[in-house]
Prior knowledge:
By secondary structure, the chain is α/β, with parallel strands linked by helices. It folds into two domains: 233 residues, Glycogen Phosphorylase B (Rossmann fold, 3-Layer(aba) Sandwich); 219 residues, Glycogen Phosphorylase B (Rossmann fold, 3-Layer(aba) Sandwich). It is 45% helix and 13% strand. It has 19 helices and 15 strands. The strands form two sheets. The protein has an eight-stranded mixed sheet, with helices on both faces. Helix 9 crosses helix 14 and helix 10 packs across helix 17. The longest helix is centred in the C-terminal third of the chain and has 24 residues. The protein starts with a strand and ends in an 11-residue tail after the last helix.
Amino acid sequence: xxxxxxxxxxxxxxxxxxxxxxxxxxxxxxxxxxxxxxxxxxxxxxxxxxxxxxxxxxxxxxxxxxxxxxxxxxxxxxxxxxxxxxxxxxxxxxxxxxxxxxxxxxxxxxxxxxxxxxxxxxxxxxxxxxxxxxxxxxxxxxxxxxxxxxxxxxxxxxxxxxxxxxxxxxxxxxxxxxxxxxxxxxxxxxxxxxxxxxxxxxxxxxxxxxxxxxxxxxxxxxxxxxxxxxxxxxxxxxxxxxxxxxxxxxxxxxxxxxxxxxxxxxxxxxxxxxxxxxxxxxxxxxxxxxxxxxxxxxxxxxxxxxxxxxxxxxxxxxxxxxxxxxxxxxxxxxxxxxxxxxxxxxxxxxxxxxxxxxxxxxxxxxxxxxxxxxxxxxxxxxxxxxxxxxxxxxxxxxxxxxxxxxxxxxxxxxxxxxxxxxxxxxxxxxxxxxxxxxxxxxxxxxxxxxxxxxxxxxxxxxxxxxxxxxxxxxxxxxxxxxxxxxxxxxxxxxxxxxxxxxxxxxxxx
Length: 509
């Protein structure tokens, strides 16, 4: 059954918090000016955001912050979450997710029984949701799980519905064709669709789809500024650093685990992240994130350094290559027990790490991040990113890649790939370096080396990257694009209705 979620149940920054910060005063003032003429268009309407979970995942993390600011701007925006106890429904929607991503191993045989289950769960939610809907409301449905719900709302209640798709693949394969063919009847009921990048839009939605980039909240725990004493405190609290002096907060109940050379794991204690340069990749344990080629590239970098007698480099450049470490960070397996594929990928990475010679193992850190506290996890990621020399996202495929956005905001250059979501953000040679083939360890190694030995290049890219995020990928831009799109669609509908035979004259007001 549908759940109406209170978006302010967790503390988030207010519009005033941003407006009194010198970095955001201008952009929040601009957003308030933009909102002024849109309020009369949306007056009396509720904009509903509908998704499949109130906790976990990027959509659930993004919505509370976005909704709070939109309501402070004077718009009525609410959040609803579909629910069911039918386990086969979640298996079906996971399969659809994998097919949209082009997974060749996903079962492409989507049957009438699948469609009936898909519709039945959404019908149950529709019946409990429709009593909350007003005659002029707008409904934005996120991702495939609630997709039939929006069609039911449009067909039976006549409301304006939009579908927001956060996933996709910039290629057409048998897998993606199967998914988009199955979803097409439900999408026919929507007035408009929203995607993260144009390459993800299926052909039959051409002409009625827009692009709205995902965005980060710069005052969230994961992205807010951290003074050095706070970074040290987070490292000590989480087990990433020994506390040589007392720190104010208590140690976290759940601490980071480090994979040891024998494959076991323990609290890291002391391995020098505050003192040494490092290349960082933070992500889920997903084979499409390019973990193993990145590890192989780092191994080649180290072995080339050890074998080289090159004298063209300055002494500090050689010192940097000597000291640099590679840090992999992802969720602790105890929190991903329902993701057997993730556990399988993690085991493969562990195996590759354990097979390295001892001196290479000393320069590679495999960290398992606790997930029990969203706040503590976000602070750990923030501190790791702020101390990194280079942030890598060596994805073979990437829907968008907010880990890149987060690193760019912190003025850390990105070692990325040409995966579709990453190249929408990172301009090659400007905000970072993009590898044409993320599975080519030699190419990844060459780009990694270029970034590590050139601090001026890193500083220039870092500054440019932060400006890029400020201009395109902060929550304020996302809100502006949503409000303008919904307002335009409402005005278009009103204009169309006024030209229908027998329609009453348009009001002069």
